[in-house]
Specification:
- With about 170 residues, the protein is mainly alpha-helical.
- It has helices at about 5-10, 15-20, 25-50, 60-90, 90-95, 100-120, 125-130, 140-165.
- The longest helix is centred in the first third of the chain and has 29 residues, at about 25-50.
- It binds protoporphyrin IX containing FE (HEM).
- Protoporphyrin IX containing FE binds near residues 33, 87 and 165.
Length: about 170
């Protein structure tokens, strides 16, 4: 499907005019993008390494996973809004950039994975990993660890593709 028209529309928008005109504000929004990424990836890494029993293994996993949730959603909102603003200023470059499309595909996959598999598998972690007490419907350890590793790989690829846009 040819999606170039979306980038043409964005390039001709008032948002693009604004973003191209105010370089100082663009730098601030770029900072918001990076700070949101640090928060997003930081919170995800904390939960995933906990499930791999590599950090805070003496602390039950439930409060860690539940406590990081709202920061993950907040960071996602910040990164998506700042990302759209940044994209408007360079829309026609992005229209032909395969790293941008790889990043968007990874982002979609990451969000679906986060809201479905990651949250349901983590809530059924066995006591040997989660330290949340015995669970009647606990999953095997390797399933939880596989989900944690997969999540890390997906979000690492999103961040790496994001950085690569700048080099291409
Ligand atoms: C709808 C969501 C997003 C959009 C539209 C978007 C868009 C952009 C754009 C246009 C740039 C500037 C590229 C350049 O010229 O250097 C950028 C940079 C970047 N993005 Fe995103 N992004 C989004 C989400 C994310 C997410 C979820 C992550 C990480 C998990 C991420 C990580 C990065 C990184 C690491 C950079 C490079 C920052 C730099 O070196 O200055 N982005 N993004």
């Amino acid at each position: 499907m040819d999606v170039v028209f979306i980038f043409e529309w964005l390039d001709a928008s008032m948002l693009a005019d604004f973003a191209k005109k105010w370089a100082g504000l663009f730098a601030v929004v770029q900072t918001v993008h990076i700070v949101s990424m640090i928060m997003l990836v930081g919170m995800l890494i904390l939960g995933d390494l906990r499930m791999l029993n590599m950090v805070m293994s003496g602390v039950p996993s439930d409060p860690i996973i539940q406590g990081t949730k709202k920061w993950i959603y907040l960071a996602l909102a910040g990164i998506i809004l700042s990302g759209i603003y940044e994209s408007s200023a360079i829309a026609m470059k992005l229209a032909y950039n395969s790293f941008f499309f790889a990043k968007m595909a990874g982002l979609a996959m990451g969000i679906v994975f986060l809201l479905t598999i990651r949250s349901s598998v983590y809530s059924r972690a066995p006591d040997s990993i989660g330290s949340n007490g015995p669970q009647p419907d606990a999953l095997p350890e390797w399933v939880v660890k596989l989900v944690a590793s997969t999540n890390l790989v997906i979000w690492f690829s999103v961040a790496a593709n994001g950085r690569w846009i700048g080099f291409s």
